[in-house]
Amino acid sequence: MESEAERLKLLEWMKKRLEELENEILAIKAAISFIESANSQISDGQKNAPEQTIQTTEAEPPKKIDLKPIPQQINNQVNAQPSEVPTTQITIGEKKVAAIFQHDNEMKVDMLVPLSQDTPPFKSFFVEKVLKDYEKKDKIREQEGQIQSNQILTYEIINDEKNNIKQIKIKNINDQRRIREIISTVRWTIARMIEKEGGY
Which residues span the domain enclosing 166? Predict the structure, then answer.
């Protein structure tokens, strides 16, 4: 028979696991909300803006994410190198927290604030539920002959000497929908991480 200590240990583990699952559900719901909002903004812009210009004319709320379509942004900056001008800047409140550079099917996220990779929900949500899920789906598509092995999404997390996230590199995105989802989930993840670390 299980001892009382073993039962308490099991109960503690179950409570912790339940909390993790609840956090994941909240994270996914929030990410869906951001993605739907982003799609709505892009759709409205396409209806009202002239060709090759997609932006709203009304004042944006303080907390926002700039989701101008990447290819058009690049076309308007043909003389600039992709590494020099960010295609998207993420702000939390009035503070810039990340700069995103998009070129062809590659994306680079430069962190502008110090956040540890161990702060939730970076690993549990953004890495495990977003990036690894894309990678897994691409590997299945590769096995089915739909894509080549060199077209599978890959990613790299670069940290500084204090284990803070310095840069996130993502290759072989190959999908505008994925680009929008990644940007939305990056923003949501950073916002939650800042809350966990006490804000700025």
Answer: 4-196
